[in-house]
Amino acid sequence: MIQKIILLLFVSVLMACNSNGQVQNKPLNELEKLRTFELPEVPPILQSVEERLNYVIEHYWDKFDFSDTAYIHLPEVTEQAMANYVDLLNRTTQEVASSAIQGMLRRAMVEPKMLEYLNKELRRYTTDPNSPIRNEELYEPAAKFLSKTNGINETMRIKAARDLKLIALNRKGSIANNFSYRLPDGKIQQLHQVSSPKTLLLFFDPDCHTCSEVIEELKASPILNQATLQIVAIYPEGDADIWRNYLSKLPQNWINGHDYTLTVLNHELYNLNAMPTLYLLDTDKRVLVKDGTVREIEYYLQGN
Q: How far is the C-alpha of 304 from the C-alpha of 302, rounded, in Å?
């Protein structure tokens, strides 16, 4: 059963002194008016969890005033509504989610500032590595809509087109892009030459503090230190000395490589907008987990 969550914003009346020193009430301005986010009432005829869920998703924004830009400045209402929305979208089919997302953006076009704001929050919650409800597949219908619909801000259109490319890049179920790298002994190897039931591909930067933390997590994880998993750690930048000076901190049973030709970056073979980046691949180098966290990859391996 879907619980109805209504977000309430409590406001206070500003008090001011008049010229006689008396306190008087001032009328509420636009931002001070009570604004909330109301979920739709689910018809009693809908009984199953799936039917009720999909109804709420499809009618989620029915009572929202897309023309009221004051909501942009009320994150406790609007941003929270978007976070709840993405959480619901993660619980339904891609088809239902896609239709609902594009419908929401289409209605938001009534006010360009609102469209920009809602898209920014949707993109953040679905694609940001720090989002606990991240699912970039949910942003794909939004990116398609923004890149192909007339009347969209050109900057948003260009950014959406690039997002589409990155979402399609090495997506789950596809064969990961192949590339060559140099090993510490000078030999050249390709990713697809790695022979292992599963491969964990790690892109890292030695100067990245988060990368060092993740590497320590990988080294300490019993689940990730098993014979059926080969870790391939790749430094994609150009300074070979930085890479060689860092090799002592990497386990010798890992495959440690340097993309000396900068192929991954120059040809955008992988989305490396944030470091580190982790991909779990099967024996055929098919993507099992894209840009996952250590916990997500451990969870996958435990269940498979």
A: 6
